[in-house]
Amino acid sequence: MGMKSQKLFAFGDSIIKGIISEYDNGRLKYKISDNNATDICSHRLGLESCNLGKFGCTITAGEKIIDKHLEKISANDIVLLEFGGNDSDKMWAEIADKPDHEHIAKTPLQTFVETYHRIIQKLKATGATIYMLTMPPIDTKAYFQHFTKGMNDSQITNIMKWLYGNIEVVGLWHEMYNQEIIKVACAENIELIDIYKPFIKLRDYRSYFCNDGIHPNQKGQEMIANTICNDLSYSTDAIHRVSSTPSISSNNKDAIHCVPAIIAMLCIALLLIINTLPL
After folding, report:
1. Rounded to the nearest 5°, which phi and psi values hold at 130?
2. What is the C-alpha separation between 87 and 116, in angstroms, rounded?
């Protein structure tokens, strides 16, 4: 009996799904890119694409999707995981109406971390090669304009009050979840593909994002694809192996190590405190 064809499974939110936005008659509309990062990588590497990302997906919703497809994943396959963008987001309409109340993220940080660990353990049992992805950065100003569109001046003022007048705090929350992703990868000994760094290395990465400030556009999807493909290509053991024994490649040039990650996490935490506490 011949070996099963190798599949590239992708689980996560609209970033891994390849959702891009564009204006049509003044209205922002979303669609799946015909040439998204997951499909680009599967074609380049000769893998069968199984992109199960979902628009608006949090990690708790993602766990349910993974559970439904777990039996389809074999030791011959590669799994990409990309979560956090929706988890770290807030319910902005509620904040606009009740700025004096406490508002938590859509997925509390502890729940996010615990769920990610649980997902990793389930996937390890399949023998598949697992890669976690960081989140890309966001364009905080564009995203603020996006989620406040249609709100009146009073509601926007309320949101600014809740943010202590600093919209950059939104980006810091985003980064706080990114640091936890790195910690989970370190703790679970899972290779992590850094799709954050290629954007930050640019002098101005805004042209790689859609108008909503959170979804990479076609250029951004291609940059993500190049990063993923390069990292998977370095991990030749993952692409060509025939053994059912999972292995962790040490050749990934963008692998993130635990000590620098922890230092970066502490810096983010300090910035978060400075920028959220009132003067």
Report:
1. -110, 135
2. 12
Cβ atoms of 137 and 143 within 8 Å: the answer is no
Phi, psi (degrees; rounded to nearest 5) at 29: -125, 150
Tokens of 40: 């680009």
Quote the tokens at residue 161. 């009050």
**SS3 state at 127:** coil
Report the C-alpha gap between 220 and 46 in whole angstroms.
Answer: 22
pLDDT digits (tens, 9 = 90+) for 35-91: 999 999 999 999 999 999 999 999 999 999 999 999 999 998 999 999 999 999 999
CB atoms within 10 A of CB 210: 21
List the one residue out of 82, 193, 212 whose CA is nearest residue 138: 212
- Buried-exposed string 82-111: b where 16+ CB fall within 10 A, e elsewhere: bbbbbbbbbebeebbeebeeeeebbbeeeb
Prediction pTM value: 0.84
User: Judging by DSSP bridges, how do beta strands 191-193 and 129-133 pair with one another?
Assistant: parallel
